[in-house]
Amino acid sequence: MASARSSSSRRAAAAANPAPRPRRPAAAKAASVRRTRSARRVIFALGLVTLAFGARAAAAVLTLDAAVTAALQKNQALKVSAFSPEIARANVLAEFGRFDPALTFRRTYSETETPVSRSPLVNSLVQTDAAALALGGLTPWGLSYSLAATAENQRGTFNRFSDRYVTFGGLTVTQPLLRGFGFGANLASLRIAKADRSLADWQHRQTVIDTVTGVVLAYNSALQARENVRIARLSRDLTAQLVAQNETRNRVGQISDADVLQARARLAGREEAVLLAERNAADLDHRLRQLIGETSFPLDGAALELETLPPAVPLTVDAAADLKRAYALRPDFHAARLGITRRQAAQAFAQNQLLPRVDFVGSYGYGGEDPDFGSARRQVRDRDSRAYSAGLVVSVPLTFTEGRGRSRAAKLAVRQAEADLVRTEQDIAIDVAAAAGQIETTRLRVAATRRALDLAQQSLEAEQKKFTAGTSSTFLVLQAQEILAGAQSSLARALADERRARATYERELGTTLEARGLKVE
User: Fold this and answer.
1) N or C: which end of the chain has fewer CB within 10 A?
2) Spatial separation of the C-alpha atoms in residues 501 and 497, rounded to whole Å
3) 49: alpha, beta or left? (left if phi > 0; alpha if psi -120 to 50)
């Protein structure tokens, strides 16, 4: 019993005063503290990943087609561009309105006093009442017409203020014979407005194509940026593992402190690479948000949930046929041709303005005159008194300086538009050839970067085995890790460039909308 108590007392004393442990070196303590902090960071990071995963699961995935649809509905540039075709159509309507007939009513009253020369204190007074109702307008060949009925009553001291109605009903015309004659002179503004309407349609179509292509490019760039973030984090984690391995081997004296410091320095650089990759991914995410019509870009907002895109489908390129399609579908080519049409219409008008003005003026109708307004009007209705006139109005500039200057400028503008069409054709040919070359180049790049990635992975595995066996160095392992990270980034860039090359090629051909089943109405 005493022995049991003694044993129990010894255990209690031992628990109260534990035996001193062997003292560890300061480096070992620091390593232990770092491992503890690293474990806490890992646990904290896992918690953040769990929260992020839950938030992403709750958010809907933004597919590429959904992004394109959102851009077509909410993109601000498209909203602005959509007004241009409607404005152009309104301008065409306004030009047609130039030839609409107009109904005009005029009612005037006037008094005129004239001193009588024989008696300065006495004035002669004339009172005039006039009214007119006319239907007039302009024709596309330059004829201006007026179908009018007029009535005038002059009374005064000369007839003791007795009513005297003069009436007329008939047609009055003015027809230019040189300047202002013909469809070219009178329809120039209408033809220009029609060309502007077609031009606005093609320009809006180009804006839609650019917007859709921009969304596709931005979507792929955002995916590439996120892949770069993953690669940067993986490279950092590999370096962190190497740091931990070096610290362990340093404690047992297998490697020097320089190897540990070298790995830690490289780890700090990899941390910066992660930060830069994350910043770039966030910026590209905001760019995609802007294209799809969002108006707020919070710094701490959740990232868009994007779908992973498959590699681009192989595309067969037919340079000759594709170039013909580009000429048929490219909005800029049609815009250049419409530019010639506009300039030719302006040139036709300028050439007409070089001519002198010679106008035929004439009228034909019936008149009436009577103290009673009803009787005067009845004379017009019964065609009792025929009235007509005919003549010419001639106006000849002395130098034609203004007309010659405008005609020369219009002729040069046509030649400029024709030269611009040739330049556009060359640009399209170069763009199509370059885009076709990128299709083949990116396909070869994907194959080459895949091989490079496989070899880089094998090289890193071999170097790590040698390092574990003590036949390699920290520098060589870090170098192999960098080569692997570079190969991963190159493959991600090649895959994204392959998809971007496909989108660019469709834009250069003008087939972007057809390829995605879209129509511009």
Assistant:
1) C
2) 6
3) alpha
